[in-house]
Amino acid sequence: MKRIVSLTVALVIFYSQIFAQGQQQEQNLQETARSFMRSGDFDNAILVLNRALQADTKNLDLQKDLVLAYYYKRDYVRAKAGVEALLANENADVVSYQLAGNVYKALEEAKEAEKMYKKALKKYPKSGALYSEYGELLWAQKEFSAIDQWKKGIETDPSYAGNYYNAALYYYHTKDKVWAIVYGEIFVNMESLTERGSAMKKLLLDSYKEKLFADVDMMKDQDSKNNFTKAFLQAMSKQASLTNKGLNTEVLTMIRTRFILDWFANYASKFPFKLFDYQQQLIREGMFDAYNQWLFGTVENLPAYENWTKTHNEEYTSFSTFQKGRVFKMPAGQFYQ
């Protein structure tokens, strides 16, 4: 009996070692392929990945890397074949569907892409990335229903930045005065170090200057049925007189400070909102001036902003240090559209 047990244990150890060696070999091949991709040698990456897949045909990571290699090589026909194999894998994840979307878009197969996104969202109904990219596909076809996808993405996956970016751009080009500002500022706090972040700062400044205070009647052409919109505009309209001599970063700081004080006095209990909580925190800690300079001053007048950082070095340093040590995320349950 002891010999049988010993033999069984020995066999388990033996096959475990073989399995581990196989896994290590696959990982080595995958890293080799990725190294080739990083250097732009997509042919060798494809060769290595195909060899690895011969040993493990259902390996999802290897399948994704192969599709990516074909995509980078601009061999979209083979990339599509790889996508079909990838999506046939029962373990296909969100990234798998994102890769498929990129390939279908590259081939200009919009109907196939749309069908794929609908299938993907049934499987992953809380994926902000999929809502964002499906909306972008619809928008490329001039379908205004794209905004419904971005709104759904914000509602179901509020920590994903892309939907705020797309929704802010959409609303900036409509008569709406609220959501480009709200979603735009959320996005900048989520993604501040990219070109999109810099562009969104400019859109925010333009939204305040060209849209929000453009009409004496701030509620003109706005959604009067949305209580959050009404509350936002009512609080902002009380600050309209501050714009009589124009709008700049300093004036915006005053307007937004008074807005937050009014919001927390009258509306915050009904509409809890992380963005406004953050602004209130900055006011309390004496960093709101620096935050508004960072948000608007950099795009309004860069030399003036750089001069401000020198003359207010302590404020600038405190805010910069604070900002680097935090990650801004919107919580669930604060969707008011």
Automatic annotation (TrEMBL):
KW Signal (keyword) present: yes
Stored InterPro entries: TPR-like_helical_dom_sf, TPR_rpt
Xref: SUPFAM superfamilies: TPR-like
TPR repeat coordinates: 94-127
Signal sequence interval, chain numbering: 1-20
Keywords annotated in UniProt: Signal, TPR repeat
Tagged with keyword Signal: yes
Protein name: Tetratricopeptide repeat protein
Organism: Paraflavisolibacter caeni
